[in-house]
Amino acid sequence: MSTEFVNSVEARDYSYAINNLDSEARSDSTHSYAERPSTDSLGVRTKEAPQQYRVYKRRWLGLLAFVVLNGVATMSWPWFGPISPTTAAEFGLTVSQVDWLGNAPMLVFLPFSFLVPILYARIGLTKCTWLGCLFLVLSGWVRFLGTIKSLSPGAAYALLMIGQALVAIAQPFFQVLGPTYSETWFDLKSRTTATMLVAVSNPVGAALGQLISPLPSSVRTSILVLAIISTACVPMVLFIADAPPTPPTYTASRPKNSFASFGRALVGRHNPQADPPSAQMSVRERFDFLIVALTFGVFVGQSSAFGVVTGQIFIPYGYSDGIAGGLGSTLLFVGLGASLVSAPIFDRVLTHHLALVSKILVPITGALWLVFAWTVKADNTGGLFALMALIGAISVPTLPIALELSCELTRNPDGSSALLWSLTNVFGIIFIEMQTYLEAGDDGKPPGNMHKALIVMGAILLGTSVFQILLKGTQTRRLEDEKMARETGGADEEDVPFNPGAGMQQRNMSEPTMYAYAEHVPAAQVQVLETQRQEEQEGDGEGDEPFNPAMLQSQTPFDIAPSPGHA
């Protein structure tokens, strides 16, 4: 392997890291890593033993936590959709004001979705999810304070709105970091499945919200139920850890590309001193990402808007709140079942054909939404449930496909996920306002119907799906991972004692890797690694041996020859 090393994908990253290390050490003598050992003193040389990869059973517990927390956070968004007329009557509000309880989270989500990747780089995955849980609990009980009967309609509405804003702050911590967790903990045989489960927990949570909110006897009781659910799920966060001791894939073993490098890559810029080669995007990759982002934003934005205006779509035709919520839930629960079946197929059979699957499923989904405009009519319950099930079975599995393709094209899971989910909220707000504007007046047949709005929405979705024809979607990240996996024989599965919050500090990382990549991993994780290095050098008790870098298990394709200072 030593003769082929210069041609490998890791050669570029290592060369970049060492050059970046030396330049930073010269330019900033006050930096905490300014006194790093030089590359000569490290005695770097290539070696034949490749990096070994491993997966851990506990990864499924962390994934379950992401699914539950993201799903519960999503429940609040469409919670008032099926009960919008009832909520308006009980709190003395207008239906338009109630609709804004669904719009507000979409607006607040936008800035915080871009802050999450930055926070992740600074404090790590575990602390980010704890922050998300804090805002989730606060949202539930602030919203419940708005149900106090002595409050004026304005004061009650303000508390309901603040509660919705708080849950919008909480959700990006789970939704945006979902693909990052799957990349960090899962191997090639299950990474798409993990991304799928976190992605579909979003619509499933919305479905549960639509299904549960009409069940309690009053709107106030319904809001209390939501607060209890939001609090009960929080202990799940204990299952989430930053990273496994040994990475599952080649991609997971490398430092994460920064959010700033992602922004530069999108506009075709590259900073050799700050961005690793993997952060660069070709013109074709940028074009494909634009198609994926646009399609994802429009289609998921329509699903979000549908959850908010569900009652306004069906109730004018004589359907009850319960039927309206059931129709929305049918779409999403059938979609969940289809996703559970299809995700393993994408992982193991259609591994290299995600773009092809997207080209087929997305236009079909657009056509079905257009047909939906003529299916909404009185006394057509069976036909509506059948069409909702069909839309769900075809559309929901495309969620993880889009998220995985965005990771493949950008090599930046948190940055690309933040942008995609933000677009869904932008389009969701636009579509809600547009459909409300196109709602029929009192002279409509029936009064207040949304037939015209549904036709316009179907046309927009079908028109957007045409861009899928131009999608190529080369899966660069997977190709690199497969190449490295072939050299090592894949990832072994191993279990370790559960330690909540144990993160990057567990990972086997050689000293030069730690130093060379220090600027591209979260600062909190770097500090832990530095502390461990110092303790090993000094020895912390009787029987300790002097620190010897050669005794560490390296994660990179080079050995370490002990320098005189470490001998």
From TrEMBL:
InterPro entries: FLVCR1-2_SLC49-like, MFS, MFS_trans_sf. Coiled coil: none annotated. It comes from the Eukaryota. GO terms for molecular function: transmembrane transporter activity. Its main location: membrane. It is a multi-pass membrane protein. It holds the Pfam family MFS_1. Residues 481-503, 526-567 are annotated as: Disordered. Keywords: Membrane, Transmembrane, Transmembrane helix. It is found in: Membrane. The keyword Amino-acid biosynthesis does not apply. The chain crosses the membrane at residues 60-80, 100-121, 128-148, 154-174, 194-213, 219-241, 289-315, 327-346, 353-372, 384-406, 418-438, 450-471. GO terms for cellular component: membrane. This is MFS general substrate transporter. It comes from Athelia psychrophila.
